Amino acid sequence: MNIRDIDHITLTVSDLERSIRWYHEVLDLPVIEFDDGRRGVKVGKQKINFQVTDHPKLPVAKHPTVGAADFAIIATDSLANILSHLTNYAVEIVDGPLPKSGALGPMTSIYVRDPDENLIEIGKYDN
User: Fold this and answer.
1) Most exposed: 34, 38, 45, 89, by fewest CB within 10 Å?
2) Which InterPro entries has this protein been placed in (predicted)?
3) Residues 108, 45: Cα–Cα separation, whole Å
């Protein structure tokens, strides 16, 4: 098998509108519509889909759980701009900035939580 990329991830959320708004406004990700009105956000060449617990899009993980995700995204802004932007939206920094090792090498990361308590690592490559 020749797997080379990730197409999308699906987050189980408690409030669809709140999640879409947060990812769009706080992380500045464009909202996209697909599959009969479902919405998600675009992240580079990938997307994040959202589903609510009581209306999952089948097939679904065996135990779709709100707040169980932990993933990293990459930003190109300066660290100072990222921190300023998060402060403007009153987003609590869980940890960081910290040196980390990303898929493409050394990076500096900041950890935040979305409205459902998913842990999001915002990384900035050091190159």
Assistant:
1) 45
2) Glyas_Bleomycin-R_OHBP_Dase, Glyas_Fos-R_dOase_dom, GlyoxalaseI/FosfomycinResist, VOC_core
3) 22
Q: What is the DSSP string of 2-54?
A: ------EEEEEES-HHHHHHHHHHTS-PPEEEETTTEEEEEETTEEEEEEETT
Give the burial string for 26-58 (b: 16+ CB within 10 Å, else e). bbebeeeeeeeeebbbebeeebbbbbbeeeeee
Q: How far is CA 105 from CA 30, 89, 101, 108, in A?
A: 27, 29, 6, 10
Give 40's contacts (C-beta < 8 A, 6+ positions apart): 8, 20, 31, 32, 34, 47, 48, 49, 50
Give 47's pLDDT tier (boundaries 50, 70, 90): very high
Q: Which of 19, 87, 15, 12 is nearest to 57 (CA)?
A: 12
Question: Residue range 69-75: average pLDDT?
Answer: 96
92 tagged catalytic:
no
Q: Is the pTM of this model over 0.70?
A: yes
Tell which CATH architecture fits domain 8-56+67-125.
Roll (3.10)
